[in-house]
Amino acid sequence: MEEIISDESLNEEVLSEPVESETGKVVRFSDLDPRFKYEIQAEPSGEFITRCYACGTCTASCPVRAIEETFNPRRIIHMALLGMKEEVLKSEFVWLCSTCYACYERCPQDVRITEMMNALKNLAVKSGYIHPAFTAQIDLIQTHGRLYEADSFVNKKRVKIGLPELTETPEPIEDIFKATGIYKYSSKANESSEESVDE
Amino acid sequence: MNRKKPRFALYLGCTVPVRAQNYELSARVIASHFDIGLVDIPGFTCCGFPVKSVSQETSLVMSARNLALAEREGLDMMTLCTACTGTQVEANHLLKHDTEKLAEVNETLKKEGLEYKGTVEVHHFARILYEDIGIERLREEVAVDLGKLRLSAHPGCHFFKPSEAFESFDDPEHPHVYDDLINATGAASTFYSERELCCGGAILGIRADVAYEMVAKKLSSMKSSGAEGMVLICPFCNVMYEQNQRKVEKEFEQEFNLPALYYPQLLGLALGYNPDELGMKLNRVKPKQILERIGVVSDKTSS
User: Fold this and answer.
1) CATH number for region B7-124
2) How does B58-90 read in b/e, with b if 16+ C-beta sit within 10 Å?
3) pLDDT in tens, B203-246
4) pTM of the entire structure?
5) Which residues belong to CATH 3.40.50.11810 in chain B?
6) CB contacts < 8 Å between A and B, how many?
7) In chain A, what are the domains?
8) How many CB atoms lie under 10 A from the CB of residue A162?
């Protein structure tokens, strides 16, 4: 059993003095949220994050890290375990996993990193940091049932080459978005909430 | 030979029916060639892949809804997009092993009068060709000598990963299924160093610069293996490697000129179908040299 209390006492008694450095990049232990890792563990796919022993196999395997060094899975996991909640959830890097599963397959501790990254992104959304690319996609899927509209131009082309016409079924998607709490991120929800404010 | 004719619910997803009609068309031709029955289900929607980043819970219900629609028809699901495959397979794996999650999801689906019982299998078309038709039969049916065309394989990450959900259908570190499929047509799958590199499609909307650099790296590696083209089975890998190839060439001042065939197009050529029947006039990087090499002429593709 891991005890949350020991983390807190560690934070208060030993590490309360902020550490400054000339670069300003030193982690200030007093700013950390030691409960962050438990929040992650409470999300689906976040449960295995504390298994990480920081070997770096993920980072060595990551095709995004090979190009963009701010996306460093080992570093992100370590920041999360330390409790650097705001730095992780507000960051751009949290959105940069290409979901190739290279790290997932190789992780010797079975942290299931690709899915764990979803837990971090889902938490970022809940904390109000949804990436605009995803609000746009939510709108499209809610409106058309798919990412792309099946308009008359598309259907004309499909019929011309001998493919069946596409139909759109957006209604059940809107219901699912409402039932699972993501409808509020769509522009339709925001339009109607603005209207109700006007009233 | 009393084997029942295999029938599947054809799951197209978002990208295939709008941006990869040549893939869909050639897949339907090949399915019919091997007497695989395909049933179109109009109510299918997005698999949930893009929504996973926002809410895994929402994504799971979206996948489950599609599975429930296939189950209602008593059919297994056949996918064409690799990202859809991964999302639907993972959701299915989870729902089959977690009765609590399944009950939760069904509570949401109830509103539409749907329930998922967990009886559907989800297989990518290439997997169906590999497992249900078999390499031997593919080889036997080859009618046109492809003369060891050198082509680079890129199946897409979600064709077999995560291996746990795919129940180790292929080796995640040394995958061979897709190479076997290509080699069965009489073409030769090239070895290139960046074989396992992801297309970067999932982060195109977040950091296009990073995604395009991944593409440049991949295409350079394919090119240096002497490839005359590449073979794909995912419409979004195609968006990255074919539809954005000119853009990446310009950005990185490199010429690739690598045509991208969808696997059913390649197989179709080997089986003797005409390029036009396989929708090849819709290929953006014109496969003119490939067609000339194998002695097939198409007015539309060569113009």
Assistant:
1) 1.20.1050.140
2) bbbbbbbbbbbbbbbeebbbbbbbbbbbbbbbb
3) 999 999 999 999 999 999 999 999 999 999 999 999 999 999 99
4) 0.92
5) 134-295
6) 169
7) 4-126 (1.10.1060), 132-190 (no CATH)
8) 12
Nearest to B285 by CA among B236, B251, B249: B249
Q: Is residue A196 predicted with pLDDT exceeding 90?
A: no
Q: Are B219 and A125 in contact (CB under 8 A)?
A: no
Tokens of B17: 């029916």
Residues of chain B with CATH 1.20.1050.140: 7-124
pLDDT score, position B1? 46
> What is the rounded average pLDDT of the residues B176-202?
97
Residues of A in contact with B158 (CB under 8 A): 99, 101
Is the Cβ of B18 closer than 8 Å to some Cβ of chain A?
yes
Helix (H) or strand (E) holding B7: strand B7-11
B206 contacts in chain A (CB < 8 Å)? 92, 95-96, 131, 133
Distance separating alpha carbons of residues A172 and A170, to the nearest angstrom: 6
List the 129-188 stretch of A: residues with Cβ below 8 A of B.
130-131, 133-134, 136-138, 141, 145-150, 154, 157-158, 161-164, 166-167, 169-170, 172-173, 175-177, 179-182, 185
Cβ under 8 Å to A: B residues 69-88: 86
Per-position DSSP letters for B151-195, written without gaps between them: EEEE--GGGT-STTTTTTSS-SSS--HHHHHHHHTT-EEPP-TTT
What ipTM does the predicted assembly reach? 0.94
The predicted pLDDT at position B4 comes to 74
Residue B297 pLDDT: 74
Judge if the upstream peptide bond of residue B162 is cis by omega within 30 degrees of 0. yes
Q: Considering only CB atoms, which chain A residues are within 8 Å of B13?
A: 146
User: pLDDT tens digits for B192-209?
Assistant: 999 999 999 999 999 999
pLDDT digits (tens, 9 = 90+) for A39-58: 999 999 999 999 999 999 99
Residue A182, amino acid: I
> Yes or no: is domain B134-295 CATH 3.40.50.11810?
yes
pLDDT in tens, B76-87: 999 999 999 999
Interface test with chain B among A112, A138, A176, by most B beta carbons within 10 Å: A176
Q: Cβ of A100 and B198 within 8 Å? A: yes
Beta bridge partners of B17: none
User: From the candidates B19, B32, B40, B54, which should be mutated to test the interface with A, based on the most A CB atoms within 10 A?
Assistant: B54
Look at residue A16 in the predicted model and tell me its pLDDT: 44
Cα dihedral across residues B214, B220, B225, B229: positive or negative: positive
